[in-house]
Amino acid sequence: MKKILSNRQAIITGGSKGLGFEIAKQYVQSGADVMICGRNQYSVEQAQEKLISVATKDQKICATVADVSLVDDVKRLVFETKSRLGGCQILVNNAGIYGPKGSIETIDWNDWIKAIEININGSVLMCREVIPDFKAQKYGKIIQLSGGGATNPLPNISAYAVTKAAIVRFAETLAEELRSSGVDVNAIAPGALNTGMLDEIIMAGPEKVGVEFYNKSIKQKEIGGSSLARGAELAVFLASSASDGITAKLISALWDNWQNWPDNIAELDSTDAYTLRRIVGRDRDISWGDK
For residue 3, is it within any domain? Predict the structure, then answer.
């Protein structure tokens, strides 16, 4: 793998397993120094050992236990990253949970709020903490993990759906705040992944997540989901100088030809393609609904 992230330092939240770990691994293989975090100490330590095994002798691979929904943990995580890695230019907000499963009137409200705190507040807090340094160095990459909840309703998994849609609009808004600062902000839709989160849905059963979503999940488990590697490849691209100037976009790892986007920066920058927008009647050949 080309060392396109050499001399770069990255934070990957939720980097001890699943897609977060795959991103961390590809970052290391691309030459970056990395800091991963997670809420389980054993998982974090195991992931760190695996990352060290694919790193070169001069790379720094750090790990810490942190809950991104807690302000003090976020501050400590960023401080440790800068102290131990020598700086930070890349933030990958990957940490996230499904939250409670079931109809809105039956789920545990505290669990619903916890999903908001981790999936939305955690990403916002991380951005707030790194942005002053990114602005000062006039360079930075913020990569937000989104998903199907951003573009489709997910009955019985409302907290997850709400957070994934909200975080895309936050990424778009933050990108506009940071225009001309040298900081790019984008969101990734990695596809349907076979990770522990899929197992969580299957364990919940059709009575909580709905028969249709449950059957879809069972099928995905049987035939295999989207490639973790493909989502991580997009995360590497968005962390590299090849993507400089690409910002405020929701990018599908599977369906978008993002490798070709650098050749079309001007057009990409002037369009609302690859963003969240309302579909109006005329977009669907409905003649009676719009003025």
Answer: no
Question: What span, in angstroms and rounded, lies between the C-alpha atoms of 16 and 36?
Answer: 7
- List the catalytic residue out of 27, 160, 214, 274: 160
CATH number of the structural domain spanning residue 79: 3.40.50.720
- What's the number of domains the chain is made of? 2
pTM (2 decimals)? Answer: 0.93
Q: At 241, which amino acid appears?
A: S
Which tokens in the block code for residue 7?
């001399």
* Same domain as 185, residue 202: no
Q: Are residues 94 and 175 in the same domain?
A: yes
The pLDDT of residue 194:
60
pLDDT at 55 over 80: yes
| pLDDT of 35 higher than 70 | yes
- List the strands of the sheet with 90-93, edge to edge: 61-65, 33-38, 9-13, 90-93, 140-145, 183-189, 249-252
Q: Is 160 a catalytic residue?
A: yes
